[in-house]
Amino acid sequence: MSLLSLQCRHRYASGFELDVSFELNHRFTSLFGPSGSGKTSVLSIIAGVFRPQQASVRLNGRRLLDTANGICVTPARRAIGLVFQDALLFPHLTVERNLQYGRRHRAAARRTVAYARVVDVLELGGLLRRYPRNLSGGERQRVALGRAVLSGPELLMMDEPLASLDDSLKGRILEYLQRMIAEWDIPTLFVTHSQAEVRRAAEWVVVLQQGRMVAEGPPDEALARPAPLAWGNSAGPVNLLRIEQVTAAEGHLAARVAGQDLFLPLGKPPAVSPSFVQFRPADVIVSRQDVSGLSVRNHLHGRVCQVAPVEGAIFVAVDIGQIVWAEVTPQAAAELQLAPGAEVVCLLKAHCLTLVS
Amino acid sequence: MTSEAWTAVRLSLQVAMCAALGGLPFAIAIGYWLARGRFAGKWLVEAVVNLPLVLPPVVTGYVLLVLLAPRGPIGAVLQGWLGVKIVFTWWGAALASMVMGFPLMVRAIRLAFQAVDPRLEMAARTLGAGGAATFFTVSLPLARRGVTAGWILAFARSLGEFGATIMVAGNIEGQTRTIPLAVYTLANQPDGMGRAWPLVALSVALSCGALAISELLERRQSLHVPA
Q1: A77: which chain B residues are within 8 Å (Cβ-Cβ)?
Q2: B137 contacts on A by Cβ (under 8 Å)
């Protein structure tokens, strides 16, 4: 029995057609896709706030929606927590009353999460008497998380909860989120259009494009295929490598990535693990053999696993243990005979790398 | 002021209070329905609710009189089953005022509900609140200032009601003679113009006060709506 199974089909008046089915069995799944790919519609269908023309939804074997048999459980009885991009706290209630809202309206049997513990884990103690209008964006999002968890959900769904926050806050809220999932073991479906968020947090990713599922799998795998990346809508693939053992060395930071050495510009080693480095595909130089006598510090050895032409450029996926995307000209790709299986070295200046934590 | 004048003031307040309170539950129900509901024939409901705004009050009063008279379709039932007489009593005045003030109350309440983000109601439902619980814990509290403003508007409108009241309730000293009717009666007497002044001034003050409070509440309501 899967945790969640969904099958839905809906044709909007605008002509947009949603036709998605998938099953979830992971703790932390990300629903990924560009804007307008149908992510929010899918969440609304699962939560029960939007009823499509044809659908069936099962959660832990319980039938929530089955249009063929006229079954439709109201959102109030689905036990699915929903966190919105703009938090949607009740403006007329204090933080404390917001947190307890779900608790008061859910059957006592579902009150599996201790109020005091939520306040503790999400560090809400100092906010309880405040009203939502006196909270910052990050604080609101934390209260919204707490409110959803306290309603005792069997599934927690989040609709781009980080999209309206600035970058430094995103990492911290993600941390709270991961702490929460670890503490209460609530399966989570996380909607985002940010590849970085998917790579950092999700165990499994379902990729949507134009109302259809185009890929699913572990993040590194599912996002490595060009089709799902919806490049028409974003600036192309993002390089985000998971790094380990970051230490300060003489004049730089040293780290390991998939068993190879990595040089980073000098800075403070990150406090959290795992951490990630980000760089642009255009900053990667591809060479067929290792070259010496260059100032470039990073020489990552790997094998081409994919070549994807996009609007006058070629994106080459190199498997170095993780996927590195390089952007090269069509001439270069032809001259170097870049095809799947080719052994290459990716050359990367240390100063092109940005540490993300 | 004479004791008759004070009686008129007391009656006016009593009638206006009853009219505004009696209409409130219906105005909340219809206002919410108009703000949220999507159904065919909504325009018809709106038209009927707003009719007293555009009809001459005397015509509205006439229709009410026909319906509520002891032999009228509603009056006969009330008289026969409950032994209640509406026309030419202060209840009649209250009912006429209620009908006249109803469109104003519905309009204010409807606007207040429209200003409540429907996604907050959605959030409440995903947190386990049913339809009624969502309404009473989220929609109504968020619209409360608009509801109060609508109530005050209807109250003020009732204080000034003349045309429909005189048709349904008559102009009986001590029973249905409210401030406007008392002013009218005085003004028709040879030396009455001068004696009507205190009542006129009081009426202006009451109306201005009600309007000011209603305006203030509506402003606070708009500040309250989340960005």
Answers
A1: 128
A2: 101
CATH of B3-115+144-224, one of 1.10.150.20, 1.10.3720.10, 2.40.50.870, 1.10.40.30: 1.10.3720.10
Q: CA dihedral in degrees (A21, A23, A27, A31; nearest 10)?
A: -10
Interchain contact A109–B (C-beta under 8 A): no
Instruction: Tell me the pLDDT band of B137, cut-offs 50, 70 and 90.
Output: very high
Q: Both tokens of residue A38?
A: 């149908």
Residue B53 has pLDDT above 70, yes or no: yes
- Environment class of A242 (CB within 10 Å of its CB; exposed 0-12, middle 13-18, buried 19+): middle
Percent of chain A with pLDDT over 70: 94
Give me the mean pLDDT over the A43-66 stretch. 91
Select from B126, B138, B141 the Cβ nearest to the Cβ of A47.
B126
Q: Chain A: give the shortest CA distance to residue B3, in Å.
A: 46
pLDDT tens digits, B10-24: 999 999 999 999 999
pLDDT at A56 exceeding the cut of 90: yes
Domains in chain A (CATH in brackets) are 4-229 (3.40.50.300), 239-356 (2.40.50.100)
A positions 68-97 inside 8 Å of B (CB): 74-82, 84, 88, 90-92
Q: Could you tell me which of B72, B179, B219, B123 has the C-alpha nearest to residue A158?
A: B123
